[in-house]
Automatic annotation (TrEMBL):
Descriptive protein name: EGF-like domain-containing protein
Species of the source: Coccolithus braarudii
Pfam families reported in the protein's UniProt record: EGF_Teneurin (PF23106)
The keyword Isomerase is annotated on this UniProt entry: no
Gene3D superfamilies: Laminin (2.10.25.10)
InterPro entries according to UniProt: EGF (IPR000742)
Domain EGF-like: 27-38
Keywords: Glycoprotein
Amino acid sequence: GFFGTNCDKVWCPQNCSKRGTCNQGVCTCQPGFSGVNCANLTNPALCLSNCEAVCVEKIKKTQQSGVHTASQLDEAGRKSKKLCVRHCATNNCPTALTSAAAASQKTTLAGLKTLQKSSSAMAVHVHDTPDDAQENPIWW
């Protein structure tokens, strides 16, 4: 749709998911995000440029794994979101450890472990189930 005094401005899809800027109906996504509404995570990363923690979770029951930001975990209602937010708040992400740095790593847990070893800070939590994250968080 259109808005503005002369109806000359164009809305962006889902307001760029609050992860990008809107210019005449087209989203320019922040680093680490892509898609028409900036809802897709482009590369697994330990910390994004705004130091938003990223969790890696492996769910045995469905054999699915993925990388989610703390915000996405909140939307999904997963219990591990509190661990991510708390960790990022207490451990500042180094500026060099961004989605761009992660782009050169494999999208596997081994790649994330390798990337983490190069830094004193970490923001990754790996767990078998969402419930297990609250009881037994694993810290690298």
